[in-house]
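Dear H.,

Thanks for agreeing to be a second pair of eyes. The structure we're designing against is below in token form, covering all 179 positions.
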């Protein structure tokens, strides 16, 4: 009888995990917060928290991470990362470097490359790609590269590729509000 109860409990927990991972719980909210570095800003869903970035920015890269927004809802979009140029580079040059880097990854795959202008007149280079991140699972990276005044920014929305809809929705909120 005890084994039967354990089996039932295991099945129930498995179903809860499947429903949570599928994104059927905690539907996205229409409420947003605003990220700003004083030069550019964008809106993002309110289920993200702005966390202090503590990464190592001493690499040879021309980009410096300036912010990270972590999702408070597990198993959806993991994070939004914001980076800013440390030296002169155009969004198109940055896009070309990113595409080249993804093509050189053993598990990287470009999904799409587009150039679009949002409602605020900001021209955004978009690069969407997938790669492997854990136990054979795939991650989706939705990158937006753009210039405000003399500064070039990269905003990346990242999460498991099983949550393409939430990643795309989050990226669209950001894209439409960049100014």
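And this is the sequence the design step returned. I haven't edited it by hand at all.
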């Amino acid at each position: 009888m005890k084994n039967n109860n354990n089996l039932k409990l295991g099945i129930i927990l498995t179903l809860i995990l499947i429903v949570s991972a599928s994104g059927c719980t905690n539907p996205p909210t229409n409420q947003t917060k605003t990220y700003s570095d004083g030069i550019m800003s964008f809106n993002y869903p309110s289920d993200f928290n702005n966390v202090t970035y503590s990464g190592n920015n001493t690499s040879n890269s021309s980009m410096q991470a300036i912010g990270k927004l972590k999702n408070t809802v597990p198993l959806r979009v993991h994070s939004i990362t914001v980076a800013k140029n440390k030296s002169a580079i155009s969004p198109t040059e940055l896009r070309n470097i990113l595409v080249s880097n993804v093509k050189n990854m053993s598990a990287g795959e470009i999904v799409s490359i587009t150039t679009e202008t949002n409602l605020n007149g900001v021209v955004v280079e978009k690069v969407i790609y997938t790669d492997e991140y854990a136990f054979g699972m795939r991650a989706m990276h939705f990158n937006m590269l753009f210039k405000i005044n003399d500064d070039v920014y990269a905003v990346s929305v990242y999460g498991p590729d099983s949550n393409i809809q939430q990643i795309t929705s989050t990226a669209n909120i950001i894209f439409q509000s960049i100014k």
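Two observations from my side: The longest strand covers residues 123-134. The chain has one domain: 28-177.

Warmly,
E.
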